[in-house]
Amino acid sequence: MSVSVRRAPAPGGSVEGRPTVLVIAGSDSSGGAGLARDLRTLFDLGARGLCAVTAVTAQSDRRITSVHHVPPALVRAQIEAAFETRAPDAIKIGMLGTRATVEAVAEALSAHATIPIVLDPVLAATSGGTLLDADGREALKITLLPRAALVTPNAPEAGVLLGEAPATDERALAAQAQRLLARGARAVLLKGGHAVGDEAVDWLALPGHAVERLAAPRLEAAQRGSGCALASAIAVQLGSGASLVEACRRAKAYVLKQLRSVAAEHVREH
Ligand code: PLP
To answer: pLDDT of 251-264, one tens digit each?
Structure first.
């Protein structure tokens, strides 16, 4: 007699159309950036969140006063426990801090090669404090950069990854986005928020395509953590099955809406 065995579905994945996103990031005590911002973005966009904390930072909007790096074995254990809870549809990686953590994360994710990763190469805070040391930067280029579905540097970060001066105009930004592809990234969204001009222009570079220009009005209310929110929002979109181009467009629209509401609040308060 043949018995047909129905396999139980793997735990997790999208629940009622809601994607699950695993966030691997550091916490920022100001609440503006890092893990708190990532999870808020997931919540805003209706995604389910899993998380692995890589570092605890004591920082205000003006400076970082202390950083505790979570032991790499514990970072790895958090990732494994997250997978045991529910298989994520996408992964967002933010602050990693040290080489050992970069390597632990790369190892923990090596068994999950099909899940899209959005890698925000967090190197330093806007206030200037270092968030990934020199050895970690090298390890990131070798291990996680080629693995990520998309890497989302700002202009200073792209400069560091390439060993070049940061680009200051649109043409140089677009060229650097393409050079990062040549260095092994699968896709690059180079954020031009740090450049000048009336528009915040990002460049999306995909292999075999012309670089795509994604522009939004530049708002006065520059807000810390916008890069974290953007990368998390892209991960939510990829987890929902959107294409890279569509995911970047929708995520940019979400961040713009956020910035506008902060700008309106600012006007009301002053
Ligand atoms: N602190 C943490 C823990 C972060 O993850 C990040 C960015 O990803 C930052 C600070 C930097 O934020 P900002 O550059 O907006 O200051």
So the answer is: 999 999 998 887 77
Residue closest by Cα to atom 5 of ligand 1: 34
Sheet holding 150-151, edge to edge: 64-69, 48-59, 20-28, 90-93, 117-119, 150-151, 188-191, 199-205, 212-217
- CA-closest residue to ligand 1 atom 9: 125
* The two three-digit tokens of residue 14, written as one number: 């999208």
Report d(CA 47, CA 4) in Å as an integer: 35
SS3 content of the chain, % helix, strand, coil (to 5): 40, 25, 35
95-122 pLDDT tens trace: 999 999 999 999 999 999 999 999 999 9
**Residues whose CB falls within 8 Å of the CB of residue 84, separated by 6 or more in sequence, listed in order:** 11
Q: How is residue 221 written in tokens?
A: 């209310």
* Strands 188-191 and 199-205, sheet pairing: antiparallel
Tell me which amino acid residue 60 is: S
Tell me how far the alpha carbon of residue 79 lies from the centroid of ligand 1, in angstroms.
Answer: 21
- Class in CATH terms, 20-269: alpha beta
- Distance (angstroms) between ligand 1 centre and the Cα of 225 equals 6
Rounded to the nearest 10°, the torsion over CA 207, 209, 210, 211 is -50
pTM of the model: 0.92
Q: Where are the domains of the chain?
A: 20-269
